[in-house]
């Protein structure tokens, strides 16, 4: 356990570690996304990169999905605005991918940093899917569909070949998606 920054009062959203042991932490402070890295061996933080997050509908941050990819230094986030936003941390440029009428419930980067996996609701709340999105082309592919199971807290295997998740139908069923 460690205190990140008592004076900042930001909310830690997610973190990830690259192969050099640097942990990238993403937090939210008001309408700012704060991105910083922490070197565990040296116990040093960088000054945070501040990126403004403004949603047209005034969306509460509690409903925003975030995930960061340390190796490609990008952050992905989405709210219920039907887009996935990709922020390049070095240049602070942002691109948006339109996902139609889908509502994103969670985001995960693939290990290679070329795709985003996301759990979505379709136009009907019973239409639940896992999609893979190519971040360069925006091409979207449905990998898994269910009318009853809402995917929760997916984990990508260390070799990047499997996605493990449980569903909310009973709370104890585990599923494995291979070859995504």
Please specify the SSE layout and strand pairing:
Blueprint: E1 11-17, E2 22-29, E3 32-39, E4 44-45, E5 49-52, E6 65-69, E7 74-78, E8 83-88, E9 93-98, E10 103-109, E11 115-121, E12 128-134, E13 140-146, E14 151-156, E15 162-167, E16 174-178
Antiparallel strand pairs: 1-2, 2-3, 3-4, 3-5, 6-7, 7-8, 8-9, 10-11, 11-12, 12-13, 14-15, 15-16
Quick overview of this protein structure:
The protein is mainly beta and 180 residues long. Helix content is 0%, strand content 53%.
Describe this structure in words.
The protein is an all-beta fold and 180 residues long. It is 0% helix and 53% strand. It has no helices and 16 strands. Strands 1, 2, 3, 4 and 5 form a five-stranded antiparallel beta sheet that branches. A four-stranded antiparallel beta sheet has the order 6-7-8-9, with no helix packed on it. β7 and β8 form a beta hairpin. It is globular, with a radius of gyration of 17 Å. The mean pLDDT is 76.
The global form is globular
State the secondary-structure class. mainly beta
Q: Given the structure, what is the number of helices?
A: 0
Distance between the termini: 34 Å
What does the main sheet amount to? 5 strands, antiparallel
Secondary-structure element string: EEEEEEEEEEEEEEEE
**Residue share in helix:** under 10%
Radius of gyration: 17 Å
In round numbers, the mean pLDDT is 76
Strand content: over 45%
Q: What labels would you give this structure?
A:
mainly beta; five-stranded antiparallel β-sheet; four-stranded antiparallel β-sheet; globular
